[in-house]
Amino acid sequence: MFLRAVRIAILAAPMLLCACGTQTAPLVDRPPDARFVAPLPDGPIMPPAEPATAADALAAARSISKAGTDPSILLEAWRKAAEAGSPEGRFEYATQLSYGAAGPDKVGGGFDMLLALAKQGHGQAAMSLWRLSKMSRSSNLNQHAPYWFNIARRAGDAMANEVYPKVLAHDREQGLLPPGTGTGDYFDSAITFSQPLAGSHEGVPLEYQVAAHLYPGWKRVSQSLHMMDGGKNYDVLELENVEGQRVKLYFDITAWMTRP
Question: Is the C or the N end of the chain the one with fewer CB within 10 Å?
């Protein structure tokens, strides 16, 4: 339970103080690393399910965790849950490994397990990679942060979805983002600008301003118009970072886009 409390404190504090990704040094020009790209769908992500065969091991690990027993016993319980195929078990075991609970030689293995889980759409694992990316001294790895944070939100991670709207509201109040609503993660949460706009010559530059702030250093690889039934119009920007990680940023442009 102590490790969990520490994780929450580490995760929450920086998110309330800064935007999704901040570069502090020049990017290194090198080939993308496909290991860090998650093959996940657009929009909401269904996290990996808990298999029935892992129920007993998972229940035992949860019980030992609540009891606040010896750390080595807890680590072993989560290892058994992880080996039984439990996503929660793998996350807890990987987290403890990444904190050095089994020694420094196991830290890398913990990271690899977290990466594998995040690539499957595990929200807490994605949040852990967000934290590690934010803490890195590498600007290339800093660019990973908004990618994993995006996955965590779309996978339904409670902390990510609670904090992100607050971050956006703060940045809008400070003038770092144009006034508006929405997170931009999908059509149903598309960003809408609240100020009156005369057309695309005013709206599109604001979209680019948002993209540059939320995904600093990322490049725009595509921009597509979606004209829905019922008269709703959306502009979708696809962005890519130095690792080949991509995200889509959704804007509701109905108010300022005129159909031909």
Answer: C
